[in-house]
Amino acid sequence: MLESPKANRARFITFEGGEGVGKSTQVKRLLQNLQQHSVQAVRTREPGGTPKAEAIRSFILQGRSESWGAGAEAVLFAAARLDHVNQLIAPNLANGVWVLSDRFHDSTRAYQGLTGGVDDKLIAALESLALDGHAPDLTIVLDMDPEAAFKRVAERAVEDGLALTGDRFEKEELDWHIRLRDGFLAIARANPDRCIVISAAQNEEALEAAIWEAVSQRFPELLAGSQA
């Protein structure tokens, strides 16, 4: 029996969470797992993913927009997201390629909205403009105590012989990161059909397995078909 077009369509999965929880590593690992199951997929990030969006990313993370305030940063993120959706996300999904993104619109809600104090109506308007109907099918929120996350980042930097530096957001005070974590958890509670919260306190292999289980349970028909 043929599967329905809806069942066969490509999926859009986003990863969210505070600083240092391991999103980038797990996006790569999920990509590899999907490819091993013959699922075509690409990974990307926000802000970024396209040349124009990457230029905005550099401007923001270098702290050059900080004096403009959270509202202006939300507009910049939306501009980057609009180009990202139009140039990378939408075309890949239309061609049957899954898209995995390290951050997406929930980060704007958490960083500039719930933590930065930007009015929810502005956030919603920018979100509607930028997404243009391309909301994620699944959002994986990696959750971890911020203090423990930064300790782990520092330990790994020492192990790798790297200097510990922070971008525009990593340099915020611990209280700010605690509020950010609360913001992501609030988003997950408000969107239970889309969001899954997974503890990032476990080791990389255990976290990878938990994420794969969540994806397999959410899209069983696609993954079963890919193994045939």
Automatic annotation (TrEMBL):
It catalyses: dTMP + ATP = dTDP + ADP. Phosphorylation of dTMP to form dTDP in both de novo and salvage pathways of dTTP synthesis. Transmembrane segments: none annotated. InterPro entries: P-loop_NTPase, Thymidylate_kin-like_dom, Thymidylate_kin_CS, Thymidylate_kinase. One of its GO terms (cellular component) is cytosol. It comes from Devosia litorisediminis. It is an enzyme of class 2 (transferase). Keywords: ATP-binding, Kinase, Nucleotide biosynthesis, Nucleotide-binding, Transferase. Belongs to the thymidylate kinase family. HAMAP family: Thymidylate_kinase. Residues 15-211 form the Thymidylate kinase-like domain. This is Thymidylate kinase.
